[in-house]
Amino acid sequence: PAAVTEDVVLHSFKCGYRHVDSARVYRNEGPCAEAIKKSGIPRSEIFLTSKVPPRAIGYEQTKSSIESSFTQTGLEYFDLYLIHAPYGGKDARNGSWRALVEAQQAGKIRSIGVSNYGIHHLDELESYIKELEEVNGKGKGGEISVGQWELHPWLTRPDIVQWCQQRGVVIEAYCPMVRGQRLDEPVLEPLVKKYGKTAAQILIRWSLQKGFVPLPKSVTPSRIEENADVFDFELTAEEMNSLTTSDYAPCSWDPTTSHD
Fold it and tell me: Residue 260 — pLDDT band, cuts 50, 70, 90?
């Protein structure tokens, strides 16, 4: 929530976090920026993300969204800007991408990418990038540097993960702890006992070992600290496999299935 964002982000910085995932639709860009400014940490050591709102997909709307991000934060650049969801139709999605590419070329955004794209959306964008390169020159169509999806043992998205890995796209995993809905799963119990960790920590560790960038979310100071304490143990290959399921069970929205 925007009202507590600044304090939460500042506490996270004290715990060693340096990656802040914000979005226009969360209405928390301003408080995140204030925390960055008050932290005393060099801006270059912090990685800040924002996203084009699902209702602002399209070239002009995305340009306005980006400008609003700078107005509300007073920052000189964003490290990453994503298209939050693949809504609005093909022309609108492509327009949003073109606006992101232009902002990146202008030095306002360091990296660009997508969130919640299905394989058909990713293929569509890859084709559009090639079209832009044919018109503007090689390397001028933008690069999908990062993709963000809900990912956890009950939603592994192997097709999307493979697509990204083949192209060197960094995969960010939101809801890595399944919003707390699966912490009592029997498969987690022996690992909790063996490693002396919480079920949430086991799930974050699973995400890290899958090669994802997990994005744990909490406003509780003790849990923020707990979620960062996952680097003193490692799950075995057998344990990783025991956690991984073939279920398709989102705990959040799932725009990957959109066909508009």
Answer: confident
**Spatial strand order in the sheet of 78-83:** 19-21, 47-52, 78-83, 109-115, 146-150, 170-174, 213-215
Confidence (pLDDT) at 2: 85
- Distance (Å) of CA 219 to CA 1, 49, 167, 180, 201: 9, 18, 34, 14, 16
Residue 194 confidence (pLDDT) above 90: yes
Rounded distance between C-alpha atoms, residue 146 and residue 149, angstroms: 10
Residue type at 133 in one-letter notation: E
Of 68, 62, 111, 118, whose CA–CA distance to 91 is shortest? 62
Q: How far apart are CA 195 and CA 207, in angstroms?
A: 16
CA angle 170, 46, 77 (to 5 degrees): 85
DSSP 151-193: -BTTB--HHHHHHHHHHT-EEEEESTTGGGTTTT-GGGHHHHH
- What is the rounded average pLDDT of the residues 155-180? 98
Give, to the nearest 10 degrees, the angle between helix 2-14 and helix 29-39: 30
pLDDT tens digits, one per residue of 79-126 = 999 999 999 999 999 999 999 999 999 999 999 999 999 999 999 999
DSSP 50: E
| Residues catalogued as catalytic | 26, 84
Query: How many whole angstroms separate alpha carbon 20 and alpha carbon 22?
Result: 6
- pLDDT, tens digit, for every residue of 35-63? 999 999 999 999 999 999 999 999 999 99
- The number of C-alpha atoms within 13 Å of 61 and in the hemisphere containing its C-beta is 18
